[in-house]
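Researcher: Please translate sequence to structure tokens.
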Amino acid sequence: MAFSGIGDLAATSSAGRAGRPERAQSAARRPNQTEQKTVVAHRRDLARKDNKVTCLWHSRSFQTIPPWILLFFWAGLGSAVPQVLRTQKGHPTIVSHGDPLPIFLQPRALLQARWVGGRMVGIEENDSHDPQLYTVTTDGPPERIRFVIPDSGHIRINDVAAGPDGALALGGSAYAADGKFGTFIAWIAPDRRSQTVTRTWPYVPWRITLAADGSIWTAGWVKDPPSRDVKMQFNVIKRFDQTGRVLTTSAPRARAAPEEGRGDAVGGFSFLRASSDRVGWLTNGMEYIEFSLDGREIDRFEDTALMEHRRHASLSLALSSDNQVMIGVVVNRRDWTIWALDRERRAWIRHDVTGPGEPTWGHLLGFDGPFLVADVIDSKMRRTRGLQQIVQRYKVPGAP
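Model: Translation complete:
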């Protein structure tokens, strides 16, 4: 609705003060200096009377609105825009690099994907008799691997990882045909000719990664065997060799998300990643802990600035071979920011994301050399090409 001309506003303002109607001035006549001052003062005061606000949207009539209604209206406008991560000027920017990668998969196949050693690895058809793993590069068709445990009736894979040499590791749970329940880790050789499945029950491997030395790292918990539901020990880190033999077991102190309860820092959004000389664990309480390849804790980082985004966000983690650490934070599937670890300042630095087109949000998959890789929902490309998600490289500030 358009506002009235300044002449009509001046006439209405005068009528409101004197309590009698006054004919509007001609729009052709320029108001004198006194009338202009009257209009400015009137706009500033908003003619507040009897605890009501006068709204001058019509030139010859008043519309009074109680202040509580205006407050409700303004609050409604604010809630339509996420308030947690609003774009602000002055933040470093992570910019897309090149065209989207020629990788086209169903959106559900990207939910547990990660990028390691020039390839993306993930899960399809999970929660089934024979889930399917896949690996895909930019120069060939996807490789699909059926994962089968003899005499199992139902398999659920919690997490999957790839090593730089192409080996795969996964952890999950399975029901036998007779209804018996168990948990496991599995290692699949780079040439896919052999696989080793090791029963781990009552230990539940929730997160998994392959370290640079070939060892299998897991983060999980120990359950009460009779109940299968009660967690007896939290935040258990176990290392295995490729045959399934346990190398080390530890339960480091870790900050858990308040909603997880009882100190469980593994469940929900937590991540285990590996670089060339260490393993990094981001707990669900936004504490990042690093371990040497022999299992010793070497450092930990936490920042209260990230905690405020934890409860209403979707998170992802990327760790490069040279130990750059990035956390992706998505709020309401709309606001996407990336937080980089500044080791010298021991703080997480927010970065805004630009390109390609109109990136709405995305999840970090890992690093491809100096570039960050993410699967992205791009509203512009979705309209023009009909794609649900794309895989895109991003240039990290300071990278060559």
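Researcher: Any highlights?
Model: The two ends are 52 Å apart (CA to CA).
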